[in-house]
Amino acid sequence: MSSTTRSSRHARGSLPADTCLSRLARSRAGYLACSARALPTVVPVTVHVLSGQLRLDLPDTHIAQQIVGQVVALGVGRPRRAWRNGWSVVARGRLVEVPDNPTTLVMEPQELEGRSLGRTEYL
How many domains is the chain built from? Predict the structure, then answer.
């Protein structure tokens, strides 16, 4: 995987790329920010991590056909307000279609950005 971490290593709460990928692997759902019919949109997706690639199951073939080839952002997180902690990860990369599976697209993350959410993020 040739991903980079955009967060500064010295930034408070930033997560390294390998931790971001493991958090994505533990998540089952996320939101894909993309453009459909020249309009910004957010699509709920199911996320699977396989060999460093993100396999994204979309709700229908129509949206998948519209966004294949785009550079998109995938947001996944688990904020826990009651405990005032959690985490957030954003992956950016280009979507590629999966042969014989019209509702699944694959992204090899080109950028991974993650952070731990601590007490100060909720104040």
Answer: 1
Beta bridge partners, 49, equal 54
* 8 Å CB contact between 58 and 47: no
Total-model pTM: 0.82
The tens-digit pLDDT sequence of the chain (123 residues) is 444 544 444 466 899 999 999 999 999 899 999 998 889 999 999 999 999 999 999 999 999 999 999 999 999 998 766 656 789 999 999 999 999 999 999 999 999 999 988 754 444
DSSP string, 39-71: EEEEEEEEEEEETTEEEEE-S-HHHHHHHTT-E
